[in-house]
From TrEMBL:
It holds the Pfam family DUF2726. The chain crosses the membrane at residues 6-23. It comes from the Bacteria. InterPro entries: DUF2726 (IPR024402), UCP028063_topo_Znf (IPR014538). Keywords: Membrane, Transmembrane, Transmembrane helix. This is DUF2726 domain-containing protein. Residues 38-158 form the DUF2726 domain. It comes from Vibrio zhugei.
């Protein structure tokens, strides 16, 4: 009986030494790796560059962000439910994520339609993205690959969710009469505290505009010209 115990102890010690010192050293040398290439395809990279230009200094654009790095299960009844919910998102990602420039808090998710036909995997992933964003109250924008060359349109899509306007630098003209607009803050009513633009010719011109409406530079520059020609 004592001999059997000695043999078992020796075997256990042997396997422990093999696993700790031999196998680990072998594993580090067994596999070699190489860089696959660009993280994004040419189309995805073009869209990323347009998105960065649209956001400017008002946010940080991240790409291929793991869902589990952004979201965590909420109101899970027990640990098992938490792990199941977390596993549900652990293998998926967001195409693009725009975060607050200072805190890196997630602001809006963008999913890119690359124009390719929908397969079962792509459909399931789109359903997952829509469901988790809705559940987490995280804004989701579906964007077409054609927007890679339309920074102005991207800014319009983003303006609802992140602040793209610098009031000290913003020069805005009334779309009704062409006069300069003034930035004001609502002091009463349903929109109390919200910023908005109003025509400097009030009360003669009552045109107002949401603070976060964004226009192309060409559009803005054309307004006073059109007005002067009338």
């Amino acid at each position: 009986m004592f001999d059997i115990f000695i043999v078992v102890a020796i075997l256990v010690t042997f396997f422990y030494v093999i696993q700790k010192y031999v196998l680990k050293q072998e594993d580090t040398k067994r596999y070699q790796y190489r860089v696959k290439g660009p993280v994004l395809s040419a189309n995805e990279g073009a869209f990323y560059n347009a998105l960065v230009a649209a956001v400017g200094e008002h946010g940080v654009v991240l790409t291929r962000v793991a869902m589990s790095s952004v979201l965590t299960p909420h109101k899970a009844t027990n640990k098992k439910a938490w792990f199941i919910a977390n596993n549900y998102i652990s293998r998926s990602y967001f195409d693009y994520l725009v975060c607050d420039a200072r805190t890196l808090e997630p602001r809006v998710v963008l999913e890119l339609d690359n124009g390719k036909a929908l397969d079962k995997g792509k459909v399931e992933r789109e359903k997952l993205v829509m469901q988790v964003c809705k559940s987490a109250n995280l804004p989701l924008i579906g964007a077409n690959i054609k927007l890679s060359y339309q920074v102005g349109k991207l800014r319009r899509l983003l303006a609802t969710h992140i602040d793209l306007i610098e009031p000290d630098k913003e020069v805005r003209f009334c779309k009704r009469c062409g006069s300069p607009m003034i930035l004001k803050v609502a002091s009463q009513g349903e929109y109390k505290g919200r910023r908005f633009f109003t025509c400097s010719r009030q009360p003669h011109c009552t045109y107002t505009e949401n603070y976060n409406v964004v226009f192309d530079e060409m559009e803005q520059n054309a307004l006073p010209t059109l007005f002067n020609e009338q």
